[in-house]
Amino acid sequence: MNAIAQFQARRRDIPAGFLDALKAQFGERFSVANSVREHHGSDESPYEPVLPDGVVFAQSTEDVAWVARHCHQHGVPLIAYGTGSSLEGHILAVQGGITLDLSGLNKVVAVNAEDLTVTVQAGVTRKQLNTEIRDTGLFFPIDPGADASLGGMAATRASGTNAVRYGTMRENVMNLKVVMADGRVVQTANRARKSSAGYDLTRLFVGSEGTLGIITEVTVRLYPQPEAISAAVCNFPTLRAAVQSVIEIIQMGVPVARVEFLDLAAVKAINAYSKLTLHESPLLLFEFHGSPAGVREQAQTVQEITSGNGGTAFEWAEHPEDRSRLWAARHNAYFAGLHLRPGARSTTTDVCVPISRLADCVLETAADLEKASFPYTMLGHVGDGNFHVQMMLDSGNPAEWEESERINHRLVARAIAMDGTCTGEHGVGLHKMEFMLAEHGQDALDLMSALKHALDPDNILNPGKMIPSA
Amino acid sequence: MNAIAQFQARRRDIPAGFLDALKAQFGERFSVANSVREHHGSDESPYEPVLPDGVVFAQSTEDVAWVARHCHQHGVPLIAYGTGSSLEGHILAVQGGITLDLSGLNKVVAVNAEDLTVTVQAGVTRKQLNTEIRDTGLFFPIDPGADASLGGMAATRASGTNAVRYGTMRENVMNLKVVMADGRVVQTANRARKSSAGYDLTRLFVGSEGTLGIITEVTVRLYPQPEAISAAVCNFPTLRAAVQSVIEIIQMGVPVARVEFLDLAAVKAINAYSKLTLHESPLLLFEFHGSPAGVREQAQTVQEITSGNGGTAFEWAEHPEDRSRLWAARHNAYFAGLHLRPGARSTTTDVCVPISRLADCVLETAADLEKASFPYTMLGHVGDGNFHVQMMLDSGNPAEWEESERINHRLVARAIAMDGTCTGEHGVGLHKMEFMLAEHGQDALDLMSALKHALDPDNILNPGKMIPSA
Fold first, then answer.
1. DSSP 3-state of A317
2. Distance CA B337, CA B325 (A)
3. Do B251 and A167 touch (CB under 8 A)?
4. Which residue segments constitute the domains of chain B, with CATH numbers given?
5. What is the crossing angle of helices A18-26 and A61-74, to 10°?
6. Quick check: A355 and B156 CB within 8 A?
7. Distance of CA A345 to CAs A1, A46, A428, B333, Å?
8. In terms of C-beta density within 10 A (0-12 exposed, 13-18 middle, 19 or more buried), how is residue A464 classed?
9. A223-264: pLDDT as tens digits
10. Which residues contact A366 (CB under 8 A, 6 or more apart)?
11. Contact B290/B255 with Cβ under 8 angstroms?
């Protein structure tokens, strides 16, 4: 996409000897190879890669602090890289500089099962974490679909399918170890479940997208594995009936663990991609966690609500393998969407609105999309009021990109007018920067700039992201 | 207590004409009367009053912004005042200046029952809020005991008895309207349940104790009133048995709504003060929320755990009036404690530790307290690892104050060594400032100072609080 061109001009010069010093310090763990730089300048966004000047493969907080001090001294940009699963261009090196690959920070530091907490290095992924703690009887619920790193999930304030029950990274991160712009290392909190001792440094960094500091350790809350889990599928005659059911379920306070919406196109896409036989109409996927009796009770209440809105009887996925297959299909919806148009790249919207406005927002968006000249799907974490439109674009056709951008602009304007947000969980990165002013207003944006300037006065941490002026 | 003397010296001069301009602007809503200043320079802390130079009774965000601009222009301190229920000296005017009484901001701005949110002006108290929304079938759970204002609760990151189930103000504030040091007005977020659009301004102000901005509107989450509620009392032979039961309940993931611990002295005190007949031994008070079947299931699990630790059979408070009486007694525990020693003032500790260390922390503290020369009680929100020691002191006897301070120092050191915090919910104010360095370390404290300086460069917002250098 040529939308990236505007960022290229701001590339900074690298001082003489700067890269040599990195080579001397890190040896084979520093690379300027084109393939390595290209890999680390790419993500799952619609943008073409924008390469850093070099990549350091960090293995410790000390490595990160060393690079930060070196970059700070020479005014060179520094970009944290987890797994590259960003959808919004977060890790593109739009001002050049050094990318810090944190995948080598892959140790579980401390499992405190008695306290329902775990501390991991930032490069540990959510699947790795859940595998390593399986024997404790606990699990980490936040599930953004991709097997993202915990550091990246904290940095983008990620959430996903389980957030309706368990909250987002905002609610589940307890403590962070962060390397500041000048290389100092800060621990943001401790392991007390609550504290009123000063400013909330933890949440200052959660969602800061590598622009205020580089997260190297994350302590998160864990939850007992539910005694009983069940999953169900419910089809609806219309989008409205599906969304209205979700609104009533949330308003009743039913503690559903997951409630995912898929429109007709999304159902067809995942049937084709994941070889499922879901009935093809708008549908909701549910998961219930609790005691056996509690799960039955939740399911019964939900079934009453969905029936009242014209939903079909639940199709149950009682066996763990059926459930896994269903949720794997949901998680692969992104790739299933891409599969609708071989060779396409996709761009994904991410609005979130108060639940009372969800039906209006979904239906107005569906009406707007009817005229689209490319394939698209709609799906989302509707229990939170958050849904996505995935648009499959011919990357050689700028007109399609512009059309998709107009659709997203209208969608974001709609969401903001409904007291919602341009991004529920994907973050700002490059792609949502243009909406920050409309969403927050100038004074709040100035306040964000003041925070950025206070913590990173030379603007070396992931520059050119999140705040339009940075 | 003479501990306040060190703060008096820093009182700032008020420029000529400054107070006259406030009088001209606010008329009878501005007062320099001694009784008014004394009332607004006092709280529930052990400190003697420290009076502001004048008090403005604000009725709107515009009033607050006007005062902020005026104070900003002249470098005069500005202190927000809700209901004066702070236990830590938050609102004492240690550098003089103007106190803004926000009790006139007492309107419920918008009830969005469909979204389970409400927006109130900062002076609305939690009891007023729950009275005004009663007909919606929703309630606001955060309950710090005192009938505090929502603005004050946000500013101190308050929690209380329900936090074990519903979280603290950190988890439940969705959006704030805040007047900045220079009078600009910022809206920190919107009403989407989640967002990844930029820095978390909401949580920057939650817990900032009036030092970063003055909160004038608060949007919080509401919850459906539970279909069924039951409460129970369980007595234990020892402190350890009671605390061990709580640890097991939390580790099992039982969603208790409340689990409060009272030591023998606290039980005796509330029996005497509230004319109850609780069996006099360490006890736990429980409340269960849910469906009728869910509540029974929770209670059964909890009873099995407490029995396994030597607890007595539950005594039930099934009727709403019995429950109200029980919880009113718990809420009056502070006054019941004071009643143990007529004429005394009390000082209250507030550590919070990871739940695995709770038994150690409580028992070591109990052992330390055995030598105390004054009456004390221990009680707390033990489901969160948070407990209080209330010490009843002869305010004419500096030796008792010093003894209580030594006890609190040892207690805080114990909690920090256990990866806990000096304050779980009361905030820093004046009384916990001395622990900020030990708890956070110099680099994190410097980061907090940088945030303070970025938002309030002239240090006019509640100066001399929270951060030792401010």
1. strand
2. 17
3. no
4. 2-104 (3.30.43.10), 108-224 (3.30.465.10), 226-426 (3.40.462.40)
5. 170
6. no
7. 10, 6, 19, 63
8. buried
9. 999 999 999 999 999 999 999 999 999 989 999 999 999 999
10. A239, A263, A378
11. yes
- pLDDT confidence of residue A317: 86
Average pLDDT, chain A: 95
Tokens describing residue A297:
């009770």
* Reported pTM: 0.97
Distances (CA, A) of B461 to A156, B148, B345: 31, 21, 28
- The Cα A182–Cα A307 span in angstroms is 58
DSSP letter assigned to residue A319: S
Using alpha carbons, select from B250, B247, B223 the residue that is nearest to residue B166. B223
Residue A87 above 80 pLDDT? yes
pLDDT tier at A76, thresholds 50, 70, 90: very high
Q: Which amino acid is at B29?
A: R
Decide: A50 and A7 in contact? Cβ < 8 Å: yes
Q: Are the beta carbons of A242 and A287 closer than 8 angstroms?
A: no
Residue B197 structure tokens: 């659009």
pLDDT at A374 over 90: yes
The larger pLDDT score, comparing residue B332 to residue B169, is at: B169
Q: For strands B98-101 and B78-81, give the pairing.
A: parallel
pLDDT of residue B317: 86
What is the average pLDDT across A73-95?
97
Neighbours of B212 (CB within 10 A): 25
- A429 CB within 8 Å of a chain B CB: no
Closest by Cα among A345, A342, A259 to A47? A345
Cβ-defined contact of A440 to B170 (cutoff 8 Å): no
Interface confidence: ipTM more than 0.95 = yes
* Cα distances (angstroms) measured from residue B428 to each of B236, B423, B439, B466: 33, 7, 12, 5
Residues 147-186 of A with CB under 8 A from B: 156-159, 163, 167-168, 170-171, 180, 184-186
